[in-house]
Amino acid sequence: MALPFFRKGKDKAPSPAHKPTPAPAAESQPTETLLTMDMGASGIVVEETSGAPQSPVDEAAILYSSGQSDMAERMLQGILETGDRRAWHMLFDLYCIQNREKEFEQLALDYAMRFESSPPVWQKMAGNGAAKPQQAQATSLELPSLLDKAATAALREGIDAIAKNAAVRIDFSRIAMIDETGAEECAKILAAARKTKRKLQVSGVDTLIALLQDLNRATHSRAVHWLLLLELYQTLGQQENFEDLAVDYAVRFEVSPPSWSEVQAAEVVQAAPAEPRDDALQLSGEITPANDNALQQFGSYAATHNDVLVDLTQVTRVDYGSVSQFISVLMQCLGSGKAITLRGHNALIHELFRVMGIDQLAQLIPRHPD
User: Fold this and answer.
1) Is 129 helix (H, G, I), strand (E, B) or coil?
2) Which of 168, 290, 307, 315 has its Cα between 20 and 30 A from that of 243?
């Protein structure tokens, strides 16, 4: 089994394996010395070879990882006519990272015509030049299966921590049980949010309404459950349901019901589908020598896990200068007999990993499967 790893060198950069599309002169590309470790019956044998790119795709991947995205883009555009889908996916991901939707859509049209198949879907990523998420985006607060005092206390704290002008999303979909204190406190929280004109979004509210309706039909139903349902109807702007329930409440408990108030109704949104959760390490941003926090996290995570699973979905670039340290962590894992999986990485990173031999050290599950 031959395992590659790297030693930094300051020798002259290797010549590219081809003559690329004419581009402005650039400073020498960073270089690494590729060492092959052959783990055979006779022991470990280390051989030194050149880590030069072997194809235009390889060179484009190295240019991008070295921070030369403009040159990488021009090279990829020159490769498109060859029909190499790797170059197309690399360019798609580059446009997503740079938030260049117009160029992405044009490339998607060209892809559909060239390959007669559906192109990737636009997905904005957090990278250089990408727009930052809007501050007004709703912050989601998910209630647990039991709506009790602890759950409502956490809900109140969560709402208080969110800026007054920001939308608050409350997910009720997991609630399966409600105690009296939880019902009373939840009604107060919703009423307070309504009176202070907080912008609310709610999901899974039908589940909570159905549960409360079942509780209210019971012989020994509790007034707090009725009041919470009334407050939900008020929050949702469902006046007819509110008034019908208010009449039943007055008859059932022989007291005056709450009064209807004209306020802005909460927006009902679909609950986000539950994503399978695992113990993967989630990394994001750029992995560079100047910002090695991600690699420190990687090392700490690998030291405490037998199955090393790293999610790179939100990583936009792995700098060429960080490759040796990245591989060092992988080698330590292999030395300890650990299985390594790197998943979700973009096409630019995938081709860098391939040309650097990382595909021999870890299982790679890229965003765009081969």
Assistant:
1) coil
2) 168
172-196 in b/e burial notation, b at 16+ Cβ within 10 A?
Answer: bbbbeebbebbbbbbbebbbebbee
Convert the pLDDT of each residue in 225-257 to its tens digit.
999 999 999 999 999 999 999 999 999 999 999
Cα–Cα dist 334/229, whole Å: 57
Helix or strand or coil: residue 218?
coil
| Each residue's pLDDT tens digit, 89-123 | 999 999 999 999 999 999 999 999 998 888 888 87
Q: Reply yes or no on domain 281-365 having CATH 3.30.750.24.
A: yes
- Smallest CA-to-CA distance from 120 within 102, 96, 98 is with 96
As a whole number of Å, the CA-based R_g of the chain is 28
Q: Domains of the chain: which residue ranges?
A: 2-115, 139-268, 281-365
Q: In one letter, which amino acid is 87?
A: A
d(CA 23, CA 33): 26
Residue 160 to residue 156: CA distance in whole angstroms: 6
Q: How many residues does the chain have?
A: 370
CATH code of domain 139-268 = 3.30.750
Report d(CA 61, CA 128) in Å as an integer. 17
φ, ψ for residue 47, nearest 5 deg: -120, 140
The SS3 of residue 149 is helix
Tell me whether the CATH fold assigned to 139-268 matches the one assigned to 281-365: yes
In DSSP terms, which residues pair with 140 in a beta bridge?
169
Q: Could you tell me which of 141, 151, 222 has the C-alpha nearest to residue 182?
A: 151
